[in-house]
Design brief:
Elements lengths: L4 E2 L6 E7 L2 E6 H21 L14 H26 L2 H6 L14 H19 L3 H25 L14 E2 L3 H4 L13 H22 L9 H17 L20 E3 L2 E3 L1 H25 L1
Parallel strand pairs: 1-4
Antiparallel strand pairs: 2-3, 5-6
Length: 296
């Protein structure tokens, strides 16, 4: 299996400066978060300054409160994403190397951990300032997808989180171990560009659906609906992509080549699927709650 699209080796760094013995670099991964958060902030600000989107013409928060909330969200993403990666994927390693826990520039962020961090930040901020939590969560659900899209593209550029081997014509020959560590394959092998799959499903498609519902279908007048759809939509998209995504190395063994962390008979689930299932369940529950509240 040596046919496929050559990996476009763009490099992890957009630019770098060496000064005073320090190597200062702006990486695509960081840029994805920065630009994604800025786009999300712009979308939410447009929504809260458009009275026609809200029941009674009154948005649930002011632009000034949005600026304060963004700070809490950034902290939730960084702290939750890093701690989630450590606890969900490599707890034993970081227990032995605690000094590496704050080194987020070396990589290692979990979406599910960052998601929990944002949930806690929004809940705390909303309770503290007396804001309607469901409506604030709807705004964040609508504004989160640009960052998801851009960060997944950054994962592709960084040559990380690649997919399982494939002979499909759009398979990508990633450099390094990705091209050489394919059981039963002679020579270089192509893999699913699962980062692109996630960018399109979790970012572009889910984001487009949420935007249409918010701006064209009046879902911002129904607190909780967009939040529930985001939970369920992301969980389903991630669950599906996991069938094409290479499992993390620490879960792969000779008798478990697919890296399943839960196996029942001839079937199994990866760690990403196990973490996504609760999102689907919670999302469906929130949708039902929002629908019953609307009817009431």
């Amino acid at each position: 299996m040596n046919t496929g699209i050559p990996f476009p080796d763009i490099g992890r760094e957009i630019f770098a400066i060496d000064a005073l013995g320090l190597h200062l670099a702006l990486r695509w991964y960081a840029m994805g978060y920065i630009v994604g958060i800025l786009i999300g902030w712009w979308l939410i600000r447009r929504a809260i300054t458009t009275p026609g989107l809200w029941r009674g013409g009154e948005a649930p928060m002011s632009p000034r409160q949005l600026e304060d909330l963004v700070t809490w969200i950034v902290l939730g993403v960084i702290l939750g994403g890093r701690l989630g990666f450590i606890l969900f994927y490599q707890p034993a390693y970081y227990w032995q190397h605690p000094a590496q826990i704050p080194q987020i520039w070396t990589g290692g962020m979990s979406f599910h951990g960052g998601f929990l961090g944002v949930v806690l930040a929004v809940w705390f901020y909303s309770r503290r300032h007396g804001l309607p939590t469901a409506s604030i969560a709807d705004l964040l659900a609508m504004g989160a997808t640009p960052a998801i899209f851009l960060v997944r593209i950054a994962n592709f550029i960084n040559n990380e989180l690649w997919g399982r081997p494939t002979d499909l014509p759009w398979g990508v020959i990633f450099p390094g171990a990705a091209a050489q560590d394919c059981p039963g394959v002679t020579g270089l092998c192509a893999r699913h560009p699962s980062q692109i799959y996630e960018a399109l499903l979790e970012g572009a498609l889910l984001g487009a659906i949420l935007m249409v519902l918010a701006w064209r279908r009046g879902w911002l007048r129904r607190p909780g609906g967009l939040t529930g759809l985001f939970f369920a939509g992301y969980g389903l998209a991630r669950f599906a992509v996991e069938f094409f995504r290479q499992a993390d190395a620490q879960f792969i063994t000779p008798d478990n080549p697919l890296g399943h962390t839960l196996r029942l008979g001839g079937y199994g689930l990866t760690q990403g699927q196990l973490l996504s299932l609760p999102m689907v369940v919670v999302g469906i529950g929130v949708l039902i709650w929002a629908h019953r509240r609307e009817r009431a």
